[in-house]
Amino acid sequence: MCILTRCCGSSSSAGLLVTHEVSAMQKFVLGLLAVVGSVICGISGDAPAGYYRVQADLLQLQNPLGVRHDGKPCDRLGVCDPVIKVFLDTERPMSAFPGPRYISQYTKIFSAVDQNEPVINKNVSVDICGQPFSKANLRAYVKDDDSFLRLTDDHISDFDCIFSPTPAADEASAQWSKGEPCQGTTQPGKIKLFYRYRVFTIPPEQCRPTPPPQSG
What we know:
By secondary structure, this protein is mainly beta. The chain folds into two domains: 43 residues; 157 residues, Immunoglobulin-like. It is built from one helix and eleven strands. 22% of the residues are buried.
């Protein structure tokens, strides 16, 4: 009996192709390996290719001591003028900050004067068109604006806000997560950023391709 087998259904030349005569025992072993292989392929794969909308809300910055990245106060009065730039990363969400874009290509979504714990409530979204979804990372860069003093802005912290929910069937059934803290890179426990998220399936005609990054 002639048996043809391929790894994970691949039709490319890279797939494993075996052609030979097999005994009953060999057929049993090959069948068992095929079942195990299909299970492994299913476990290791992302969510199926499709059309998804990924949304994240940036909720609040908490920096009660008014400090920058090195623990020193933002200014002599101990208050900051925070500016927040973000990038919702579905391309390489687990790569080191700042990810596949420069900070200059992030989008500025919030600024405040003399506020250490401002409520933000700004939404960021990105569509995935005809591709799998596994994880997303709302990356945030926070600085203290000193431009009005004609000084160099002070770095406060960088944040990774990583999430990987199962996409809901549609927007109506998509539930927002509870507010969660992002992972900050400086002054852990002293500077915090909170967010929430949801992901849902959308019709193909509603999918908006991600525009190319721009510096700003």
